From TrEMBL:
GO terms for biological process: epigenetic regulation of gene expression. Signal peptide: none annotated. One of its GO terms (cellular component) is histone deacetylase complex. This is Histone deacetylase.
Amino acid sequence: MDTGGNSLPSGADGLKRKVCYFYDPEVGNYYYGQGHPMKPHRMRMTHALLTHYGLLQYMQVLKPNPAREKDLCRFHADDYISFLRRVTPETQQDNLRQLKRFNVGEDCPVFDGLYSFCQTYAGGSIGGAVKLNHGHCDIAVNWAGGLHHAKKCEASGFCYVNDIVLAILELLKAHERVLYVDIDIHHGDGVEEAFYATNRVMTVSFHKFGDYFPGTGDIRDVGYGKGRHYALNVPLDDGIDDESYQSLFKPVISKVMEVFRPGAVVLQCGADSLSGDRLGCFNLSVKGHAECVRFMRSFNVPLLLLGGGGYTIRNVARCWCYETSVALGVKIDDKMPEHEYIEYFGPDYTLHVAPSNMENKNSREMLEEIRLQLLENISKLEHAPSVQFHERPSDAELPEADEDEDNKDERNHADFDVNADYERTSSHSRVRIEFVDPMTDDKNDEAMDRLARDMESTIIEMTGSKGSTFAAEKEEVTHFKAEEDSRNLHDEPAEMDQN
Ligand SMILES: [Zn+2]
């Protein structure tokens, strides 16, 4: 099969990949509050497993530079980000109107260090994109990222800022087309929405559909305007197992890779699709989940691996540790090494656990029907659409829409704007060839800032049924406020001592 890939800096045929792994030692200290299922502690557990399995030595371990306000505002509204920066648990009651407006308070609570937490997880994903753009690695990993529900002016589903959208905007500076794949059990609505009207980003989300948060992701939702057929939704039912999942994942992704030919891929590895998740209802094993990573990796295209959901935290740590080993191409034992969180993994103390015997509600007939429908949708998209050549837009104004553009509404969609910023590197010799460091080019920054402001966030009606996504439970974790790091994304991220 022609994958259209083979673009990795360290060569296409090697079994090993150059991996950059982003981790902030403070990230595990952020705490959403008592009973909240989202626990940043799971990233610390993952890191401890990686350390004691001896995997850190095979990759570059980087502490992310915190994303700055202007970085976050490339996608998000200024007033929303400024609110996130200012709000504290003590003062939140003085801002009831804004809390409501920005959907902050219940599923997305205000907690100590909230803004630094956002800066940290977004900094890792953007930093990963920068590393990939520069060809410094083949695969970049940020398990703290993947918060796919956040909207331009609204928090949603435990997500405040959408690090994925920000990372994709970064990748678009160096790549004509970026593919986004989402294997979280929830629909990747925030990312889909941001790029719904562009053919430069294709989004593919596999998720539980039907009376389930966030309610979007119907197979009939395929994109809009120039983005029509560049969004793909795979609706699944309870109890899906490894075999059923891969019977859709592999043929669909193979076809997408062949037809769309992305220059980079972002894979959101939400672990709430694993068997036994506290909020999920799928029945995937860690190996079945990781098969998606193995498969994406096999295309030899720069790959950004992100986290996401995952609420049975011992299984989240198992999954992301194993997936890191898959990214590296290093085999690791099922028997877990002794480490500080070993008691979470009893009674077996193994990396892999058997899925349950729950019923698989996805019948063969249903899966086949979905597969055929998706392949038909993919057949309708233009092969590897090329970005139209534009001169770099002046600082004062973005280019006018094409004269033959008959739909004025499309001018405000992501498609128009992301196209405006891209410069081809082939065949147009008068265009600058080098990919400027996107984070240090002020002109580029300004164009992107404008781009983000102009991006329309909600495109057309989506069948949404919002609801609370968890029931409160009692739990006990330490409380901690992280200090803000003054360094910014311009700097090379600090390489960490791996001991
Ligand atoms: Zn989820």
